[in-house]
Amino acid sequence: MANAIFYYKPNSPYDDIKGVKHHFPKRYLRTVEQSIGDWVVYYGPVIGMPSRYYTMVAKPTHITPDTEKEGHYYTYLEESVDFDHPLEYSEHGGYETGLFKADGKPNGGRVINAIRPLSDEDFRSIINAGLSAQDEWPARTDNPDEASSSDGFGELHQTPLAGPYGERPIISQLVNRPFRDAKFRHHIRKLYDRTCAFTGLRLINGKGRPEVEAAHIIPVENGGNDSIQNGIALSGTVHWMFDRGLLSLSDDFDILPSRHLNYDVSHMLHADMKARVPEDPAHQPHPHYLDWHRTNKFKK
Q: Which helix (H) or strand (E) element contains residue 15?
């Protein structure tokens, strides 16, 4: 097994879903085969930004031939999680050994490879930079002074992990559920400005912690990953209804109420029945995840 770089470009001609499946030509088959069961880093352009960036880590699980396009393959991925922010590929002298020449210019022979091996050392460097930000709004605390705030927005007691996410190095925590939950929650709350996408509700306690929750569209127990495109910010009650299929979302972000609802919840939701999602398509719920929710969860 070995780490690798996967180049991803939004709206490319390849049949990719970032963090779910990666479409590639045969010339990269050997490198992808070596990455199965290990970790890969997504790399490429980011809409509205001028360079190339490392943006996500994921684990390839298996490869299948493309039955419609000769000489092409798919690799499928799991445990995908976005970085706290895109890492510009040349910052700090570059993260990948050999990607730049002695004069500081990119090494064209290496940069041109859309899928390329990544050394253990370079992988650690990228991951530690990409997932090192601390949660601005930790969900719970064991501090008695914070367990119940003056605004009545109380919090339950919970002993926190040692350090921001425990004492273990970040890489060893990539499969650690508390670490991944904290990352996913922080990313979604930040992207949605701590506001429920369905209701516009934005409750913040005295310590700055929001009431809004980070909901997985495809739940983790059903194979869902921690990509921000598999997430949406929802208030507690709406999250409960969403998880039980009483509410869903169209690809155009229309809020879909189930006919199985035995009460009218329209007064709780945006009057136009439209969810408020980030403007950047790369941060919006992806149709792949929304289709799964409508097909497998939504009680029509």
A: none
